[in-house]
Amino acid sequence: MASGDPTPDSVVLWTRVSVAASDTVAVEWTVATDPALADPVAGGSVDASPAADHTVHVVVAGLRPSTTYWYGFRAGGDRSPIGRTRTLPSPDGPVERLRLGVVCCSHYATGYFNAYARLAERDVDLVVHLGDYIYEAEAKHERWTRLHRPRGRCLTLPDYRARHAQYKTDPDLQALHARHPMVAVWDDHELAGNAWWDGAAGHVPLTDGDWPRRRAAAVRAYREWMPSGLPDPADPYRIWRTVRLGPLADLVLLDTRLKGRERPAAGRRPVLGVHRRDRALLDPAQWEWLEEVLAPVAMSAAGSGGGPPGSDGGAPGVPGTGAVGRPWAVVASQVVMAPIHLLAAGGAVGRRLGAVGGGLVVNPGQWDGYPDERERLLRLLAARGGPALVLSGDLHSSWVSQLALDGGRGAPVAADFTVPAVSAPTFARALAPKVPGARSALERAIRRSNRHVAWVETAAHGYLLLDVTADRVEGQWWHVDRVGRRTEVEHLAATWSVRRDDPHPLPGP
Ligand SMILES: [Fe+2]
To answer: Using an 8 Å Cβ cutoff, are 374 and 392 in contact?
Structure first.
């Protein structure tokens, strides 16, 4: 059971019933203001049918803003455990602060979800999952901690359903869902490794079959098994959407993985001369929406009038006054937005990076492979005139970077906070040779060739706690001790803040 996509007056409740494959059963649901469900405020009945793999979504409306609720389900004679959820603040406020937990890359087979367990204990309003909620991979790796079911790679609808079902049996994931509402977007591994709209590096048509069919199966299972609503009921592939965090922030969730993504450049090639700069990462409809969501202050004041108080309180067109009450734009991107260039190192690191002949190497699957579109987005943020922050994942490591115009050489626009993996193999494990000192050498090399990277840690798993107020956003990177077994040990690895009038990330609260 789980809850997700809260608004000031609604939330999506989710559960799944284990019954005979052909049965349809009625599921009763109750929402209450107390943990014993003694004081119900809403309830009803909905069918769990084979067509949706016996998953159930209920959109509960008519709730009060900034309020904690409890919910439960009954089917046949069985009762579910009781879950807790929370609505978001009203756009009119007042609200002083919001706390978010941000996670990504939870690989069941390569480790335990200790980060989920620790985040479940935190007092947060919302959990944001940046994708790789499941991994479609096979279970063959002898060093993996747990075995995936099914054993092979997910290719069909029954495969993806079974994989989602396995993840939902994890007690730490269950604890997280039972405690906090989640807003989730997919990355590639909900479908296939390094996916784009027309294919995936992890999909070989000759042996794996038709890609659009596999893509549709993966997305259908995702829709069935995630506690999310459909931003556009006519389009199951649309995940980009805005979540308004009261008057404080707009959480702008992108799809940088599937809908508009053009095939990335192959391999990690030198930047100069080989990469095309104008590859598409977002589809045209997503750009249209972004231009509206990130419209400058004056434009938004002239628009629908639906903005929060203070959003249009200043003098239109006068820099520094119109933006005073503007909410934060917190842009959630699956893949890292900050440029990351590594000087081609010799030896094992260089070989692992696939560096060619002393040039710069990049990961073409990140925004680095789509530089014109990155510039377009940063220009939107700069023109918007309010404070901004980017959240990213996918890199299985922790980063704080400065985003700036003109390929990083121009005016600073926002910070990029990159969250570590919950349990997928770390960046250091992929790139640093297994010799003493290799990891710190890797991190020193990164810092040397990327002056805009303020902090990087490549070997730990964990989660990000985000504390949002009108004046600043503070990020705390909490790293767990290990993922090879369940543990309660975690530590605060770093704290970085961004103030509303200064886009530079600063160490400390
Ligand atoms: Fe990942």
So the answer is: no
What residue spans in the chain does CATH classification 3.60.21.70 cover? 88-507
pLDDT digits (tens, 9 = 90+) for 289-329: 999 999 986 544 433 333 343 333 333 333 433 444 789 99
Token duo for residue 416: 């990029």
Q: What is the CATH number of domain 88-507?
A: 3.60.21.70
pLDDT tens by residue, 157-170: 999 999 999 999 99
Q: How far is the CA of 392 from the centre of ligand 1 (A)?
A: 11
Distance 458 CA to ligand 1 centre (A): 14
What are the angstrom distances between the C-alpha of 33 and each of 8, 12, 37, 84?
15, 16, 7, 10
pTM given for the model: 0.93
Those residues whose beta carbon sits under 5 angstroms from the ion ligand 1 are 105, 132, 424
pLDDT in tens, 449-500: 899 999 999 999 999 999 999 999 999 999 999 999 999 999 999 999 999 9
Cβ burial 206-217 (10 Å sphere, 16+ → b, else e): eeeeebeebbeb
